[in-house]
Amino acid sequence: MTEDGRRFSGEVRFRNERGAYGFIERDGPGADVFVHVRNVIRGDLIEGASVEFDIESSERGPRAEDVIVVD
Length: 71
Hints:
Elements: E1 8-16, E2 21-26, E3 33-36, E4 40-42, E5 50-58, E6 61-69
Parallel strand pairs: 4-6
Antiparallel strand pairs: 1-2, 1-5, 2-3, 5-6
């Protein structure tokens, strides 16, 4: 289930090519969100890209799901 049942927007702050993961800086308040490339459903996860996503809670903290690159 997503946090508050709503979509979020932000920008890819960091992408580790070898590890196939990165971090998204949310628009507005809140901590950066971990993202794995397998959770990107449209577009390429590159630094600086604008994205929309859901947030799932995990044992390690917030994780982006159903990520869509919008630019």
